[in-house]
Design a protein that fits this description.
The complex is a heterodimer of chains A (83) and B (850).
Chain A: E1 10-12, E2 17-20, E3 26-28, E4 49-51, E5 58-60, E6 68-69
Antiparallel strand pairs in A: 1-2, 2-3, 4-5, 5-6
Chain B: H1 8-19, E1 23-24, H2 27-36, H3 44-58, E2 79-80, H4 89-93, H5 95-104, E3 130-133, E4 137-140, H6 144-154, H7 159-167, H8 173-181, H9 189-192, E5 195-199, H10 203-224, H11 237-269, H12 273-289, H13 297-314, E6 317-321, H14 325-328, H15 330-339, H16 344-359, H17 367-373, E7 381-385, H18 397-408, E8 415-420, H19 426-437, E9 444-447, H20 448-459, H21 466-469, E10 473-475, E11 479-481, E12 483-490, E13 493-500, E14 508-513, H22 514-522, E15 526-527, E16 532-533, H23 545-577, H24 582-586, H25 590-593, E17 609-613, H26 615-631, H27 637-645, H28 652-659, H29 669-686, E18 698-700, H30 706-712, H31 743-750, E19 763-767, H32 774-790, E20 795-800, H33 803-811, E21 820-822, E22 827-829, H34 835-843, E23 846-847
Parallel strand pairs in B: 1-2, 5-6, 7-8, 8-9, 14-17, 17-18, 19-20, 19-23
Antiparallel strand pairs in B: 3-4, 9-20, 10-11, 12-13, 15-16, 21-22
Helix pairs in contact in B: 1-16, 2-3, 3-11, 7-23, 8-23, 10-11, 11-12, 12-13, 13-16, 16-18, 18-19, 19-32, 22-23, 26-29, 33-34
Classes of the chains: A mainly beta (83), B alpha/beta (850).
Chain lengths: 83, 850
């Protein structure tokens, strides 16, 4: 689901809510986003992310030693990111 | 003068804060850990700096509409994050529970998102897709597995775990464990809050910019590479230290530039022209200060804030004080107002926004530390006034504006402290008193002369002069901290600006409960609350008052010896693996010497201390024992002990005798002489202990919030305090309801000893608003303060509030989200305080007139 917290216009205030930069309104983090949704960069959307055996974490293939990653992590400033 | 109104911009930003819950994420620890474990076998300081650079470079920048000052600790408004390299035990102990919550948290409903209120910003219960950690922080459920994986990676490698192994080598380590379990002592500073209670120094980036710092470090690195410089132990380390400084500075540049990029991104789709232009201005400012010294007030304010957050992100820190920020920023303020680039109103708005940023700082630590010790506060104490290096009043117009912003935008941080000196102008002091009258709980007043005397006594041996002692500022809630003057070149002039130059304080032995030690002395080493032995029995009778004092001192010394040795090991592990690089590069004289904090690179290093709680309950208890048991023989020691163990149940007559025994705070020499003797012995004894840096310890006497938690762990006292009740706050505050002769009698009681023999003392007074109403009320308040300062008192602060309001706020917290109270060295939102501390503040004696 395209939730607010996964949108590039979303500025998180806390773990449950944030502010939409488009509307300047407070929005619930996990509520359905609007049609202007633009995906925020996350590890789960990166070509170098590989799901792991653990249902909640995976692996970053950019890491030489197979360091773990998780899909929901922000990747905005990740220098390895490949969309 | 009426309280000025908050600007619309700051109100909007503060309202976001008031609705925000404390929230944590794993971004910083993820990148730090990932890099750290890539660099096996690297020199420790370089390895740490590389990890810091990776973490800062990868943080997601978040900017909120309307912000003038940007950048924050993490991706949330009140964001913070765990540092498992310091301590991971808390998460490992709850691994199963947290993982289950991560798996089981279901989808959230709209109702679950709208239930903030009671408890303020504390995320007290898991809800929706967020899990509550330690009853304080929320974390997204999808982050919990990462939290646990990171904790697992640091298991047996964290400062906590490594030091725990080496602490076993201390013969008294078992006693130390007993002291912690019995809450005779409250926290281990080495892996909980290893830095802080100190004053930051913003000078080097203000003077040289980051490019300049990197250039200096690079030149120094080249000059010292391969050279011992006459120091066969640590001279060669300078190479690695400079390398670490360069890496850390690069990380900070990347972090700042990422924010600049984010500001440009926001501007790219912003439809509101004003907001768009503000984003562009933010971007341009950040792009400049990432490399060069500030050009004016706005640049300098942003850079100081950036540096503050940078230091806070490097380590778990509470009480990193901005120091005399109004004097640091004054050259830029004067320049910009003279040139017309800045109006007074612009500056006020910016200072209000700065308050919101400081108030939003959270510190992620365990529940015991954040709740039991800190009450959620982070103690960013801004000092005002004091003297210049050559002894002239140092206050300025910008400091007046800082006070004004604190009145219009009341918020816990930064709290304010006036360095009171007789030479400060009346209008400045009256403005400060006006601010106190608003009920915000600040500024506190600290005696500048007493502070300087303490500093000279403690740091004279490290080269401190009278002029340098005048650079003093308060670190943390009221830790007198060594600072220095450094020469700033700006706009063709030279300015002497003050900044911190000492190591952290309130590290060492913290906090020792004096009433609990007395309990152990009376019961021959037994913790009567837990029915558990802590000290071995002394096997000697307590036939005289002197014998009780001897037993008390014996146990106190045993406790401090054990705690000091173990804490020295913790801090030693910290300095070997987790040393400060960023805080070090900011402080004199690390850049010059090439040594960081861990190699005595700071100018002043004798900062470790012994901190106590419950002084006044101890003094009152000794007065009761002396009078009732040993002089008047109104009750036998055995009868009294039975009454204490029974919490006075069926011992009403004894309780009445205890309550009516002499009490501190009434100008009664009987009790006050006991305080004076204790203070003399404590100051002398503290200096017999040595820190890991080979420097002598000294006394520190503030309670923060430990008087609540430690009171809860103590049985009834000979002073009549019931079992479990909070101790008197601070160290000079009377026990609630026992000071019956007015504030001036309290002052005389408090000043029967030399306050400069201790890093601090702490006196809190509650005044009914009617007692200080109007302009005349401010004058009365100032005269009251003078009365204390002239007697040699170090610190006094006021709660100006009607106790009935507090009682109503306790019953109806939802209606009091913005109510501020002064606790003990800090101001906090009422709703974010635990009930024991609320009860204690309500019970404090309220002066209606004086």
């Amino acid at each position: 689901m395209d939730t607010h917290r996964n949108c590039g216009y979303y500025a998180p205030v806390d773990v449950t809510k944030g502010i939409c930069h488009k509307t300047k309104q407070e929005v619930a983090a996990d509520a359905q986003s609007c049609p202007q949704f633009s995906p925020a960069p996350r590890c789960g959307n990166c070509k170098l992310y590989a799901p792991g055996k653990d249902p909640l974490t995976g692996e970053c293939k950019a890491s030489a030693n197979g360091f773990f990653a998780y899909a929901g992590m922000s990747a905005r400033e990740c220098k390895y990111r490949r969309d | 003068m009426a309280t000025p109104a908050i600007t619309a911009r700051a109100k909007k930003l503060r309202d976001i804060y008031l609705g925000a819950a404390s929230s944590a994420d794993n971004e910083f620890p993820y990148w730090y850990t990932r890099q750290y474990f890539t660099d096996d076998c690297e020199i420790p300081v370089v390895r740490r700096a590389r990890a810091l650079r990776a973490a800062f470079s990868s943080l997601t920048p978040v900017i909120y509409p309307g912000e003038l000052i940007v950048m924050q600790k993490a991706a949330y408004y009140r964001g913070s994050f765990p540092m498992p390299w310091l301590s991971e035990g808390y998460y490992m102990a709850r691994e199963d529970e947290l993982y289950r919550q991560a798996l089981e948290r279901g989808s959230s409903s709209a109702d679950e998102h709208s239930s903030f209120g009671c408890g303020g910003g504390n995320f007290t219960q898991s809800r929706g897709k967020a899990v509550s950690i330690a009853g304080k922080f929320g974390m997204r459920q999808e982050e919990i597995p990462a939290l646990l994986k990171l904790a697992r990676l640091w298991q047996h490698k964290s400062v906590q775990d490594i030091s725990a192994r080496y602490e076993r080598a201390v013969p008294e380590s078992a006693l130390k464990d007993e002291l912690m379990r019995g809450i005779v002592c409250m926290f281990d500073s080495g892996y909980t809050l290893p830095q802080g209670r100190e004053v930051i120094n913003y000078y080097y980036p203000l003077q040289y910019g980051f490019d300049g710092i990197i250039k200096i470090a690079s030149e120094k690195k080249a000059a010292c590479a391969g050279c011992a410089g006459g120091d066969g132990m640590a001279g060669m380390n300078r190479l690695y230290n400079y390398e670490a400084v360069i890496l850390a500075a690069e990380g900070l540049q990347n972090w700042i530039l990422n924010y600049a990029k984010e500001a440009r991104r926001l501007a790219s789709f912003e439809s509101d022209e004003n907001q768009k232009s503000e984003y562009c201005a933010i971007a341009e400012r950040l792009e400049h200060i990432a490399h060069y010294p500030p050009r004016g007030f706005r640049d300098a304010a942003q850079l100081c804030w950036t540096l503050h957050v940078a230091a806070l992100n490097e380590d778990a820190i509470s009480g990193l004080s901005p120091g005399r920020l109004g004097q640091v920023l004054y050259p830029y303020y004067e320049h910009d107002t003279a040139s017309g680039a800045l109006t007074r109103r612009d500056a006020l708005e910016l200072l209000e926004c700065q308050r919101v940023k400081f108030t939003s700082i959270d510190c992620f630590a365990s529940a015991g530390v954040v709740g039991g010790v800190l009450s959620g506060s982070t103690f960013n104490n801004l000092s005002l006034g004091g003297l210049t290096e050559d002894g002239q009043p140092a206050c300025n117009e910008l400091e007046q504006l800082i006070i004004e912003a604190a009145m219009s935008c009341a918020s816990p941080q930064p709290t304010l402290s006036v360095l009171y000196d007789e030479r400060l102008p009346e209008d400045f002091l009256l403005r400060a008193a006006e601010c106190v009258r608003t009920g915000a709980g600040y500024p506190a007043f600290m005696n500048n002369r007493v502070a300087a005397d303490f500093l000279l006594s403690q740091y004279g041996g490290e080269g401190m002069t009278v002029g340098e002692a005048r650079a003093v500022a308060i670190g943390g809630c009221l830790e007198t901290s060594p600072c220095s003057w450094l020469t700033l070149d700006f706009a063709g002039r030279k300015w002497q600006i003050p900044g911190g130059s000492g190591q952290p304080t309130s590290v060492g032995v913290h906090f020792v409960s004096l009433p609990k030690i007395l309990e152990l002395a009376l019961f021959d080493g037994m913790d009567m609350r837990a029915n558990h032995r802590i000290f071995p029995p002394r096997g000697r009778g307590l036939e005289t008052c002197e014998a009780v004092i001897e037993a008390f001192r014996d146990y106190f010394l045993q406790a401090v010896a054990a705690l000091n040795k173990c804490n020295n090991i913790q801090h030693d592990v910290w300095r070997k693996n987790n040393m400060a690089v960023i805080n070090s590069l900011l402080k004199p004289d690390c850049l010059e010497k090439g040594h960081l904090i861990n190699e005595l690179g700071y100018r002043y290093n004798g900062t470790f201390n012994i901190e106590t709680t419950g002084t006044v309950n101890f003094v009152n208890s000794m007065a009761a024992l002396k009078k009732l048991v040993f002089e008047e023989r109104a009750v036998s020691l055995e009868e009294l002990k039975a009454a204490l163990a029974a919490n006075f149940k069926s011992h009403e007559k004894t309780h009445s005798l205890c309550l009516n025994a002499p009490k501190y705070g009434n100008d009664d020499p009987y009790a006050d002489s006991i305080l004076a003797e204790w203070e003399r012995w404590f100051a002398q004894t503290s200096r017999e202990f040595e820190s890991l840096y080979g420097k002598r310890l000294y006394p520190c006497q503030i309670s923060v919030s430990t008087h609540g938690a430690m009171g809860a762990a103590a049985i009834a006292g000979p002073d009549g305090r019931p079992a479990g009740a909070a101790f008197a706050d601070g160290s000079m505050s009377a026990y609630p309801g026992t000071d019956k002769n007015g504030p001036y009698a309290l002052f005389r009681s408090a000043c029967g000893w030399d306050h400069s023999s201790s890093q601090n003392s702490q006196l809190n007074i509650k005044l009914h608003p009617s007692a200080v109403a109007g302009r005349e009320g401010a004058k009365k308040l100032l005269e009251l303060t003078r009365g204390y300062m002239r007697r040699g008192g170090f610190h006094v602060q006021y709660n100006v509030i009607d106790s009935s309001v507090l009682r109503d706020a306790q019953r109806n917290p939802a209606g009091y989200r913005e109510l501020l109270v002064r606790v003990a060295g800090f101001t906090q939102y009422w709703v974010e305080l635990g009930k024991p501390i609320q009860d204690e503040i309500i019970a404090r004696t309220e002066y209606g007139e004086f």
